[in-house]
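Sorry, I am new here, but would you mind making up a protein's amino acid sequence and the tokens describing how it folds?
***
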Amino acid sequence: MAATTTPFLSKLTIFSNAVSFSSSLSPSFPLLPSRTRPRRNSQNALSVKAKIREIFMPALSSTMTEGKIVSWIKSEGDVLSKGDSVVVVESDKADMDVETFYDGILAAIVVPEGETAPVGAPIGLLAESEAEIAEAKAKAGSSSGSSTPPPAVAPSPPPPPPPTTSTPAPAISQPAAAATAAEGPRKIVVTPFAKKLAKQHKVDTNKLVGTGPFGRITPADVELAAGILPSKPSVSPAPPAPAKPATSPAVPPLPGSTVVPFTTMQAAVAKNMVESLSVPTFRVGYPVTTNALDALYEKVKPKGVTMTALLAKATAMALVQHPVVNASCRDGKSFTYNSNINIAVAVAINGGLITPVLQDADKLDLYLLSQKWKELVEKARAKQLQPHEYNSGTFTVSNLGMFGVDRFDAILPPGQGAIMAVGASKPTVVADADGFFSVKSKMLVNVTADHRIVYGADLAAFLQTFAKIVEDPESLTL
């Protein structure tokens, strides 16, 4: 497949004057004989002791934490040259070919096709010559063997139960205290504030059973004995409340239902949507008359111009006059006026959602913008977008008008100040100032904005400017 390429790195371990290409599977110390320690002043002591390099899972984007092996282009035993594509990796938004920096032989595949690995983890081993292939295969086998025991140890729940048998004694404080009293006299520990309360309320602490750690008498014990804490018993049943959530996961799936795990892209979308919940947002809707825009579209459509390009251009021109709507807040302590106006447009693709970015949309003419958009859509559907082509947006447009949706709200993407949801343009009866009725095409746009940096007046002014551009769209062709 024709996909974008990303080189992988090999780990270089430097120790004194000895250099060894080692892996996480091999010892971290240098492969030097203990009897012949090289001098620090020796220029000839620089040597490569191990000639097996690891192929790592690369970070194909700033948000990527793990990757999925789509396919291995090369097979075990294949001879590789620097720059050859070795494996296709699925990131959170695209599939990319990964190249090699070195010549060698693909000695072992550690992560097979269809499986995932965290960023930085070894996915294959590269040998410099045939002599190291056997050693590489042994390391690959030991790595897979060493990685399997942890899962085997993890599911062994028997060790946790023994601690639970010993912990009930401290947990059930009153029987424990009674048991210690039966064993013999022990020193009663009372907290300072509990002593003070005992004196005030004339409570004999020797007759109390402490509920604190190791039977310690707490202020709550004294207040309870003095009869001034009637609400305490009612609070004690509160701890079982955490057990309630345990009942929700216990609901069995419906008969015949199928559980489908998220794809890498769906997992990334879900993560971003959950992250957006931490941002305080508000929404403003605005009706826009589209008769003039529709007429312009009919003129430029034969030249390859799309409605998406028209809306993106109009949005970019409005953002030029309202830079705060193009700003972003990432740390919650400050916000950034972005120097570029990059319009991200939501596109539904098979198995997910992606937002290709029209960079510097305010500076490109309408026809070049349309051509660029077509290229981005083709790359998005082939999952070949470069990271900067989908994660550099400063403002997002989501259009469901082509599906007949008249209005909807969009969720603000993390790291952006606003997103505009565009509905369908529909004939609407309107009345002019003289009371005469007419039918005009109108569409409703709803903007969701980050209220930390964009206020209601800012958004209203932006929408008014956007409406003026759409209602008199000749400036879009300049």
Q: What stands out?
A: The longest strand covers residues 437-450. The chain has a mean pLDDT of 77.
